[in-house]
Amino acid sequence: MPMFQPELETLPRPKLTELQNQRLREQVAYVYERVPFYRRAFDERGLKPSDIRGVEDLPKLPFTKKKDLRETYPFGMFAVPRQELARIHASSGTTGKPTVVGYTKGDLEIFAEVVARSLAAAGGRPGMMLHNAYGYGLFTGGLGLHGGAEKLGMVVVPISGGMTERQVMLIQDFKPEMIACTPSYAQTLAEEFKKRGIAPEEISLQYAILGAEPWTEAIRKSVDEGLGVRATNIYGLSEIIGPGVSNEDVNEREGLSYIWEDHFYPEVVDPETGDPLPEGQVGVLVFTTLTKKAMPILRYWTGDLTYITREPGPSGRTHARMAQIKGRTDDMLIVRGVNVYPTQIEAVLKEIPEVVPHYQIVLTRQGPLDEMELKLEVAEPFFREIGQKVLSDEVIEADQRLAHLREKVARKIKDNVGISVKVSLLNPGTAPRSEGGKLRRVADLRKL
Ligand code: ADP
Ligand code: K
């Protein structure tokens, strides 16, 4: 398969290391000069930028974590004045503060290049049409794939997410060769085609580039068969750039994705101690940006668990490969590609006087789609006002005040967190309470 930047993608390992070392030295000097957060981190440890001579010195530096981005909200981690920015993105979830990231024109150029590499690895070619069903907006997915596809010379259909019937119609009419979306949405589309009696061979799509949430070989098989495509994995996160940090090659598909290492230096560390782990061992994936200007980041703790290998892959690319994400170290849930923290749900519940913020989240997978049920208690005073003794579905349907409350909670969660939930109301005092230990508010019954 032709590569987008063959020279860089197959750079011999010693040359790649040399390039990384040189770029790292520049990036470190740059952040020390421009980002007070990093200057302090260096000074506190008695480190000078010149102490970091190459990637092997990275373990001397502390990690950067999500909380550091939250504490410097919105622009505290930026290395350029706002006039020099070209674009802002932010993580999904708007309750509490989102994590905001910025790009210069040059950063957007790099973003487009790494996504173009990813699309080419996934089977994309100039002149092919890409049906881009990733969400457009603050989320990096839609615009990220868009920029990369244009860079590669593809024809982009910026359909964004939702309105599945319309998507199916446009796929039939426009006949795109490739689709980009979350793996769960690809399954939804496959089901919609099936419902209409359209066979996979009749669907024009040949390739699918899927990411933003964890998935498995079983899901790959169902998408491959359901849409008649060869699906590959695209991985990324907004803090590093967005999608296109790594991608599988469509001819390998062994679950290993090439990390575009000349821009993002990967480490895998022990989740408990933070010590670097040897290749092949599962730990937390940590990235250092080597070329970013608006928001360079050193040793970013992704929370994603996986391993990497530097064995060159069959495609001839020399860059390290990472295995599919095996889980996360924090309490972040990914529901239909959207990042959700239970604390975001709590913040919404605190604003609704008719309920108490004792709740339980139950995640299941109905067919291809994640379903989230939120079980929560009606507040005592409201309960008395209603004059009900025991809540049941029939009672709730019969009493408008309860039915409205359920709708109100669902709408507020949708508006603030960006996901649809099924709300179940419980009698006061019946949600699980902490008994000193760690309360498990989330029951994740999805089988990955
Ligand atoms: P948002 O979705 O709110 O924009 P991010 O882009 O920062 O937020 O989400 C990044 C996270 O999504 C990653 O840290 C990882 O947990 C998850 N993710 C992204 N792509 C994949 C993938 N291909 N496989 C598994 N998890 C993924
Ligand atoms: K995500």
From TrEMBL:
<comment type="similarity">
    <text>Belongs to the phenylacetyl-CoA ligase family.</text>
</comment>
<dbReference type="InterPro" id="IPR028154">
    <property type="entry name" value="AMP-dep_Lig_C"/>
</dbReference>
<protein>
    <recommendedName>
        <fullName>Phenylacetate-coenzyme A ligase</fullName>
        <ecNumber>6.2.1.30</ecNumber>
    </recommendedName>
</protein>
<dbReference type="GO" id="GO:0016874">
    <property type="term" value="F:ligase activity"/>
</dbReference>
<feature type="domain" description="AMP-dependent ligase C-terminal">
    <location>
        <begin position="337"/>
        <end position="446"/>
    </location>
</feature>
<comment type="pathway">
    <text>Aromatic compound metabolism; phenylacetate degradation.</text>
</comment>
<feature type="domain" description="AMP-dependent synthetase/ligase">
    <location>
        <begin position="80"/>
        <end position="287"/>
    </location>
</feature>
<dbReference type="InterPro" id="IPR045851">
    <property type="entry name" value="AMP-bd_C_sf"/>
</dbReference>
<dbReference type="InterPro" id="IPR011880">
    <property type="entry name" value="PA_CoA_ligase"/>
</dbReference>
<dbReference type="Pfam" id="PF14535">
    <property type="entry name" value="AMP-binding_C_2"/>
</dbReference>
<keyword id="KW-0547">Nucleotide-binding</keyword>
<dbReference type="InterPro" id="IPR000873">
    <property type="entry name" value="AMP-dep_synth/lig_dom"/>
</dbReference>
<dbReference type="Pfam" id="PF00501">
    <property type="entry name" value="AMP-binding"/>
</dbReference>
<keyword id="KW-0436">Ligase</keyword>
<dbReference type="InterPro" id="IPR042099">
    <property type="entry name" value="ANL_N_sf"/>
</dbReference>
<comment type="function">
    <text>Catalyzes the activation of phenylacetic acid (PA) to phenylacetyl-CoA (PA-CoA).</text>
</comment>
